[in-house]
Amino acid sequence: NTFHGRFRHFLDIIDPRTLFVTEERLRDSVELLESFKQGRTPPGVTSAQAIIHPDTGEKIPMPFRMS
Predict the structure, then answer these.
(1) What residues does 52 pair with on adjacent strands?
(2) Residues 8-42: tens digit of each pLDDT
(3) What's this model's pTM, rounded to 2 decimal places?
(4) What one-character-per-residue DSSP string does 1-63 give?
(5) End-to-end CA separation in angstroms for the chain
(6) I need a labelling partner for 39 at 20 to 30 A (CA). Which of 3, 6, 46, 57 fits?
(7) With contact defined as beta carbons under 8 Å apart, do 52 and 59 qualify?
C-alpha cells in the first residue's frame, strides 16, 4: 500500500542514528568539514584514503567521493 512504500522510502533515506549524536560530536564534525574545505586533513588521514576505495583499491570517481 502507499503508506508502507512511503515508510520504507523514509527509512531508506533517513538514518535514525543521527538522533543520538551529541553536541560535542556534531561540533567536531563541523570542524572536520571546515578543515577539509581549507585543504587541511586530520592527523592520520591521507588524500589517498579519500580517493582510493578501501576494499577494492580502485580510484573513486570524483562525484562519488564522500569522505
Answers:
(1) 59
(2) 888 878 777 777 889 998 888 888 878 878 888 77
(3) 0.47
(4) -HHHHHHHHHHHH--GGGGG--HHHHHHHHHHHHHHHTT---TT--HHHHHB-TTT-PBPPGG
(5) 37
(6) 57
(7) yes
